[in-house]
Amino acid sequence: MDRPLRIALLGGGQLGRMFIENALRYDVEVHVLDPDAACPCAWLAHRFVQGAFNDRDTVMRFAADADVIGIEIEHVSVEALELLERQGKVVVPAANTLRTIQDKGLQKEFYVKHGIPTPAYARIERAAQVDTFPQLLPGFLKTTTGGYDGKGVQPVTGTADIPDDFNGPYILEKQVAIAKELAVIAVRGSDGRTAAYDPVEMVFNPELNLVDHLLAPARCEPEVIEEAKALAMQVAGAFGGTGIYAVEMFLTTDGALLVNETAPRAHNSGHYTIEACPSSQFDQLLRAYMQWPIGDVRMHGLAAMVNLVGEGGSGTPRLEGTDNILGRPATFIHLYGKAKTRTGRKMGHVTVIASKEEEIDESVAAIKAHGKVVPMNRMEPVKHQRQ
């Protein structure tokens, strides 16, 4: 080949941006397809094409000269990926894996088929069917396709709880008593070798239903840490394809681990690996594309990641509190390059590294107190001088 290897990435959001930041260390080209001309990858990609990544013909034209096709979002054309595989191109994740992941019903059936523990559930077509499964109530009604970041999920005790515009088909999943919500990034190499990072503990913002911050490793007993890693590698092994798998799971109050869902791509829960591990989740993804050996998943120490979420309305983003954040030891700011902020939108994150849990907790509190992404037109607070 008389040119660098070309990676065609479907999706140009923050995951793609961080992937490109890592890939620039190597002799590869990253081409990006996204419908948003101002997406975070638009200015970093070797080639950017504005277009729909869920349209088969658009994807086929975009990837015609690529050697490898990857994703940074699940909602892409699986039909195009299947055709590209038949042409002999490397596709990560495999098209059949993504077809399963895109449908929560198929995903649940996959877990059951492969002996992977998951909460009890039923597939239903109409909201009126909820009351016919009293053994699954109270529970959560989830749309089988299209949901993300808490969207497409409705807590239910019966049919009366379901909004008129919450359309099926659905998964009705029994609510379980949760002690902690964990996530593990598992890696599977082209040689079939698997590895897993330490699980992280996800702490959610109850109003936005988004991860507020995470702690790495999760503050669990050592046997729970090892069991969570083994379960994530079991999931990766069941799918069988090269790539990375973000496995979200519940640790129940009686000590059981149940898989909630899997994302076959880089994931918010793995951002801490950029600073905390020798090989980040984005480096692992590049290794998967290049069919190189998987990297080192060990942690340098303790870590935490705090999501920077927009607040105060919409507009051009501005980060407040930079001095206070960077004044803490071993803190790292990542802004995602999004042109507009809005309340509840992920705009960046801050990672902190430390050797003691108390230091982690102090830094997390400081970041949450001072780090705010707001519109530039928001009024600055008046600073009163002491008389």
Task: Tell me what the structure shows.
With 387 residues, this protein is of the alpha+beta class. The protein folds into 3 domains: 5-92, Rossmann fold; 120-174, ATP-grasp fold, A domain (Dna Ligase, domain 1, 2-Layer Sandwich); 178-375, ATP-grasp fold, B domain (D-amino Acid Aminotransferase, Chain A, domain 1, 2-Layer Sandwich). It is built from 10 helices and 20 strands. The protein has helices at residues 14-23, 56-62, 78-86, 95-102, 104-113, 222-239, 273-276, 281-290, 322-326, 357-370, and strands at residues 5-10, 28-34, 47-50, 68-71, 90-92, 121-124, 139-143, 153-156, 170-174, 178-188, 194-196, 200-205, 210-216, 243-252, 257-263, 302-309, 317-320, 331-335, 346-354, 372-375. The strands form 4 sheets. Strands 10, 11, 12, 13, 14, 15, 16, 18 and 19 form a 9-stranded antiparallel beta sheet that branches. A hairpin with a 4-residue loop joins strand 14 (243-252) and strand 15. The longest helix is centred in the middle third of the chain and has 18 residues, at 222-239.
